[in-house]
Amino acid sequence: MSDVQAQSILVQLKNQGILQPACILDREMSGTTAGKVYTVGFRDEPLYVLKIDGPKHVELVASFLQTYAGLIFPKLYFVDPAHQFFVYEYIQGTANKEMGSKSEWLSALAESLINRYQRDSADQGWGWLDEPLADSWPSFLQQRILEARDQIGGLLPQDDHDWVKQLPEAIYRSDNLQAYLLHGDCGVHNFIFDSSVLRGVIDPAPMVGPPHYDFLFAFCSSPDDLTMDTLRQAARTLHPSLWQWDNHRSLVEEVLVQLYCRIATCLKYHSSHLPEYLEAWAYWSKLRNEAIT
Question: What SUPFAM superfamilies does its record include (predicted)?
Fold first, then answer.
């Protein structure tokens, strides 16, 4: 998708009265591999975001934003009927910068978003809605672990790989999980901060899962303050119906599943963070060993 095509869409939106005549295509932002994302300016200020992507992605994300209209997500202004693009609100601030303390923004995330998630049906399966769905939540996590293992390789001992792959079935052996519609990529790279205050959450990858998945994903999405104290302090903000986090061993093991997958992501995209994540892995592994002895 070239800038010429994006300009053509902008003209179309102006002609339809969806955007003001004075709006201009401002700059291209980082987006999905297949898609393009542009800010649209009005009177020298970014006001909108134009996202161009595949029809399935556009349809899923637009439906997600409509479902959670009025929350911390950007307001959706227009969806192309052919699902080639959509336009949403530009949120002032910066992603993954000036975040303040992790316990504070995690608490804000729980209050403004996770506690307000809506239940969904898991009849079709669990996981990201634009991928083949798993028949259970443990199966989804096991697939993520297998994918991460290929990336991690010999960085971790073989024993670690072996016990991690057994965790999903052990954690959820007796749980009757409720399915919810989740963001699915709920990390600091998609959080907009302004003066250390969480102002918005962008770029959902809609999925079906338990709400605490997004909470733990967010916790592990930055290498700072990956401690039990930080997590417990923020988890108190979660509604009790969403996660019984007072089971110490289960809590530790769920964090380890997320950390394992995060190490794989770190190797692929953020290798400079690897020493901190390996330090966190040792810390949480020690907590697990203490809990099972």
Answer: Protein kinase-like (PK-like)
